[in-house]
Amino acid sequence: REDVSHSEKEIPSSYLEAFARHGRVRPQSGVLGKSVVPSSIDAGLSWISYWARAATTDGLGGRARELVTRERDGRNLDTASFAACINRFIASEAADRAIPVFDLGVTFRFKEVAYAPVVVDAAGPAGKKVYLRGGDDPNALLAAVPKKGAKEDKDAYTAEKNRFEELAARVERLLIREADRLEQAMVGGRVWPAPLFLALAAHPLAQHLFTGLVLSAGGDGPAPLLFRGTIDPGAARGSFVRVDYSEISKEAILAQGAVTVPHRIAFSEADRVAWSEHFAESKLIPPFEQLGRELYIDVAELTIDTARKMKPAALAARLLEAKWQHGRPEDAGIFYESWRLFPGFGVRAVLHHGGLAISGGQSWQTEPIGLESVAFEDLSGGRCDAADVAPVVRSEVARDLKAILR
């Protein structure tokens, strides 16, 4: 916990208004001793809350729970309200700020011709790619550096080629990682206060991911504002358009208070079709499935085929691939449950399965094992009926089950 010296006058009014409209962080007096609780503190508290649930040692978990209780009581909030206050942040703001910036304003020279790196859409799991633009046709894109010229110095050519390939590899890895983070934000129900979203959307690399996603401003209102990012020539960094290509101002987004990456469930069929056509016309490729994402809303979709077995190492790998965390290990480092957190919905899903070694499935056990059951808990550990869980959570858990048991 850090001392907070902010006063209301030190926080931009748009910042405070956005949080107030969102209803997740409001000025509170309490343990922090100040009238304003900045989002960074809530992000830090979310990590404390995370360890209160997930710590595998009693000492760490107990201390985290003590801190959570103290802060909750200091803000005069009940458990549900406090969870809603902090869990939409889950330290994601810090991760947003930590995205590195690579200089794409550099040029590369081959055969005495200058080429500039540009980020373009690419089909398949690789997502965005870095190409070169330049040469005889200034609009042509090259997926690889030009071949060495007959009179070109070999060492200079190799150095320039290596410089471009290193930059391209680093940028592409970063964009894959950030696309995954945005997908988890959609699945987990993350909500950005509008000022924080606009700061992220202005990042010179992250902005490329928002061109292929529908974004929603306005939270749970009856008519949220739907838009996407744009980096069209001449557009200012962090510009946005509607489905009809009309521009949306940053002030209009700020006025809505909060921004999300909506799940397919949140779209009307008319909006989903219109945006699908928009992306097709614009030849934009989403960084992950949003509008065409498979839906499994019926509770029956959560039924597990307990007869389906596989090697422990295979099950461990599939759980990891689906982003499920291992539960508390028991004797000999064996764990029998895995979990996935949906912080924006206040839910944790728990999968019970055969014993897996904490080392990733590599153990003395070779007999095939499988999944046994799935359950849901609120953030305090209380059981939730599957029918009462948010449809997004049910759909995503069922989607994971199908992937794990494929």
Jot down its keywords.
15 strands, alpha+beta, five-stranded antiparallel beta sheet, 406 residues
Model description:
The chain is of the alpha+beta class and 406 residues long. 36% of the residues lie in helices and 18% in strands. It is built from eleven helices and 15 strands. It has helices at 13-22, 39-54, 58-74, 79-86, 92-97, 154-188, 194-201, 250-256, 269-282, 312-321, 391-404, and strands spanning 108-110, 113-120, 129-134, 137-142, 192-193, 215-217, 225-230, 239-241, 247-248, 258-260, 325-326, 334-342, 347-357, 371-378, 383-384. The strands form three sheets. Strands 5-10-6-7-8-9 form a six-stranded antiparallel sheet. It has a five-stranded antiparallel sheet with strand order 11-12-13-14-15, with helices on one face. A four-stranded antiparallel sheet has the order 1-2-3-4, with helices on one face. Helix 2 (39-54) crosses helix 3. It is globular and about 70 Å long.
The helix/strand series, from N terminus to C terminus, equals: HHHHHEEEEHEHEEEEHEHHEEEEEH
Which runs of at least 5 residues are low in confidence (pLDDT < 50)?
A: 1-44
- The termini sit apart by 45 Å
Based on helices, strands and strand pairing, what is the structural class?
Answer: alpha+beta
Question: What is the β-strand count?
Answer: 15
What's the pLDDT, averaged over the residues? 79
Strand content: 15-25%
Rounded to an integer in angstroms, the radius of gyration calculated over CA atoms is 24 Å
Tally of separate helices: 11
What strand order characterises the main sheet? 5-10-6-7-8-9
Q: Which assembly state applies to the chains in this document?
A: single chain
| Helical percentage | 25-40%
General shape: globular
The major beta sheet can be summarized as: 6 strands, antiparallel
